[in-house]
Write a structure and sequence with these properties.
Elements (H helix, E strand, L loop, with lengths): L9 H8 L7 E3 L5 E8 L7 E6 L13 H8 L3 H5 L1
Antiparallel strand pairs: 1-2, 2-3
């Protein structure tokens, strides 16, 4: 479903570029596309970012990745947590 993130529209491509600012929509090391949705206070001087997977492009609405694809990439399996 995903293809190349940022290929669905120019707006997403620009938002991910981060040439003039720290991008709020980024590709994680795990291959999942994330959007920063908040800040959390840490013991360090700078706050940490809270990220959430992006399933649909916030600009054009195209499906980018499924929850199942995110679980595969992150190794997150909720059924294992119940055991």
């Amino acid at each position: 479903m995903a293809g190349t993130f940022g290929s669905c529209c120019e707006e997403l491509k620009d938002a991910m570029s981060g040439e003039e600012f720290e991008p709020l929509i980024t590709l994680g090391d795990d291959g999942v596309l994330y959007m920063s949705v908040g800040l959390v206070e840490l013991d360090e001087e700078e706050p940490g970012m809270v990220d959430h997977p992006v399933f649909f492009c916030p600009f054009c609405g195209k499906g980018l990745q499924t929850p199942e694809e995110v679980k595969e990439k992150t190794g997150d399996d909720e059924e294992e947590d119940d055991a």
